[in-house]
UniProtKB/TrEMBL annotation:
Origin: domain of life: Eukaryota
SUPFAM superfamilies: FAD-linked reductases, C-terminal domain, FAD/NAD(P)-binding domain, Folate-binding domain
Domain FAD dependent oxidoreductase: 5-147
The protein, known as: Sarcosine dehydrogenase
Pfam family, one: GCV_T
Alphabetical list of InterPro entries matching this protein: FAD-dep_OxRdtase, FAD/NAD-bd_sf, FAO_M, GcvT/YgfZ/DmdA, GCVT_N, TrmE/GcvT-like
Residue intervals of the GCVT N-terminal domain: 208-522
Organism: Sinocyclocheilus anshuiensis
Length: 572
């Protein structure tokens, strides 16, 4: 009706209610994660349901089905009966009083779809509740109402925000079906820190994908992209087509090396290959490492009002000379951080895409974490529209690759590959320029997200492999290695760099997050969220009553330090 993608799929979902069970009245609700089954008290009986590995998709949704039910398919549901009997043996001798089997909508990550649709301003979603509508409905309804009225929710709702998915995925039926199935089947599985989906992989691949896979890259999936996680020393581990965990007579992927590697990650301790990631970190710290960061969002902001838009959108002062690059945040009206990114001011020039857009005035190049690119795109477009700025946002993410060469040996290495002087005087930190790399034009930026000296190379797609091979050949004598995002995460944490949405969320302000240095508060330039930051700075990061309570705690601690030390509460 409105051209809005709603990435959900309908499945049959069921539970049964047992006959009366004597003495059941005070039993707690039970969830058996191994059997993927739940037992919920319902008066003097139990309702039993779960999440099977072979749910029935509702292929043909009828307009005349409203408030109707399906017949229960016992061949599918019996696995839940078996699991419930294993947990509560008395059920084996208990009859079934009633069955309920109806349609329910499920999503790719088993979380609701909420918020303003990227395709149409003012069109809000509140759907895809994955059989948890009664549990989530009250809170989500309250947040959605606030969202509609005020333009954003009160709480951090990014995990439910439709903009967490890239627009190239939300109308892809294969992705919706496969990923929703896997999320359904694994709903009761333990969530380990480094698990990755097996469904709908290889949706978006950068130009380096094949050559990195041949070198043992273990990929992570973010926003549909395959990005390097770490590099396995036992050879390639390609990702295969989804086998639906052998449901629906789909042949199981046997001898699936990538799946076996993930299985070794199913721990809350260090995985057995942690030493490999350690070595990637140490190589970056002591020599030089190359990171493929091609999944980053790469946008150009151009047009007559580009400067006005940049001043309003970005917390940092971007009124620098062309060739400068600035780390900045974007805020909402309440001063919360909607994004952190780098913005580079470009020289006016004719178009030489994808490296330079056509511009007669101000133009900016935005490099944004790839996992939140859709969120950033939608936020910028909404602000441009709300403010009436006459400018254009152009997405060239798919047209360029990006490698980051980091470490104390990076300058010596790149000086052999690039035709530009890389000394600190000629190429200072937070600057960029178009240079030649192995005969190919690239945009080089002196930046780091790992705390070491290094450069990013933003490369037109067709030039990616020649430039990569030149870097690796020149780096051999310096001990260069490929490294992935597991190493980036470790190194950036050591450096104290923030990751949006892990360390930094829309309900955190730059003042609270230690990012006040990104805000042009000493200038008179207005920007989105400035008034909220000024009010917070005037009041203090803690409200007055909390400051009084905090001061009391400090005073009591000082007065009673001996008592506290003896009690072992503080270790000095």
């Amino acid at each position: 009706m409105a051209g809005v993608n709603v990435p959900l799929i309908a499945m049959h979902h069921a539970y049964v209610v047992t006959e009366r069970i004597e003495g059941i009245q005070n039993m707690p609700n039970v969830r058996d994660h191994d059997a993927s089954v739940y037992l919920r008290l319902q008066g003097d009986a139990l309702s039993v349901g779960g999440y099977e590995h072979n749910p029935i998709f509702w292929e043909d949704v009828s307009d005349r089905f409203a408030f109707s039910l399906f017949d229960l398919d016992w061949d599918v549901f019996m696995q839940h009966i078996d699991g419930a009997v294993n947990r509560v043996p008395a059920l084996e001798q208990t009859g079934i009083k009633s069955t309920v089997c109806g349609p329910e909508s499920f999503t790719a990550d088993h979380k609701p779809l909420m918020g303003e649709a990227p395709e149409v301003r003012g069109f809000f979603l509140g759907c895809g509740f994955n059989s948890a509508g009664m549990m989530l409905g009250g809170g989500c309804g309250k947040e959605l109402a606030h969202w509609i009225i005020h333009g954003r929710p009160e709480k951090d709702m990014y995990g439910y925000d439709i903009r967490r998915f890239h627009h190239s995925l939300t109308n892809n039926n294969r992705w919706i079906r496969e990923r929703s199935h896997e999320s359904y089947a694994k709903n009761y599985s333990v969530v380990f820190p480094f698990d990755e989906p097996l469904a709908s992989r290889n949706m978006r691949k950068d130009p380096f994908h094949q050559v990195l896979q041949e070198q043992g890259c273990v990929f992570q999936e973010r926003h549909g992209w395959e990005r390097p996680g770490w590099f396995n020393r036992d050879g390639p581990a390609p990702i295969l087509d989804y086998d639906y965990y052998s449901a629906y007579d789909v042949p199981k992927n046997n001898d699936y090396k990538y799946s076996e590697i993930l299985g070794k990650e199913y721990t809350f301790d260090f995985p057995p290959h942690h030493y490999v990631i350690r070595d990637e970190c140490l190589t970056c710290r002591n020599a030089v490492a190359v990171f493929d960061m091609s999944y980053f969002g790469k946008f150009y902001l151009t047009g007559p009002d580009a400067k006005k838009a940049a001043d309003w959108l970005f917390t940092a002062d971007v009124n620098k000379a062309p060739g400068s690059t600035v780390y900045t945040c974007m805020l909402n009206k309440r001063g919360g951080v909607e994004s952190d990114l780098t913005i580079s001011r470009l020289e006016p020039s004719p178009a030489h895409l994808p490296l330079t857009p056509e511009s007669n005035g101000e133009a900016y190049y935005l490099a944004i974490g790839g996992g939140v690119a859709q969120h950033n795109w939608s936020h910028i477009q909404a602000v441009l529209q709300d403010q009436g700025f006459c400018c254009t946002l152009i997405d060239h993410t798919e047209d360029m690759g990006m490698i980051s060469i980091q470490g104390p040996k990076s300058r010596e290495l790149l000086q052999e590959v690039l035709d530009s002087d890389l000394s600190s005087d000629a190429f200072p930190f937070s600057t960029h320029k178009i240079v030649n790399a192995a005969g190919h034009k690239v945009r080089a930026m002196r930046l780091s997200f790992v705390g070491e000296m290094g450069w990013e190379l933003h490369i037109p797609k067709e030039s990616c492999l020649p430039v990569y091979h030149a870097v690796m050949a020149a780096g051999a004598k310096y001990g260069i290695c490929n490294a992935g995002y597991r190493a980036i995460d470790s190194l950036s944490i050591e450096k104290g760099y923030r990751h949006w949405h892990a360390d930094l969320r829309p309900d955190d302000t730059p003042l609270e997050a230690g990012l006040a240095f990104t805000c042009k508060m000493k200038t008179s330039i207005p920007f989105l969220g400035r008034k909220a930051l000024e009010a917070q700075k005037a009041e203090g990061l803690l409200p007055a009553h909390q400051r009084r309570d905090f001061n009391k705690i400090i005073l009591l601690t000082v007065k009673n330090v001996d008592v506290i030390k003896k009690a072992g509460i503080l270790r000095w």
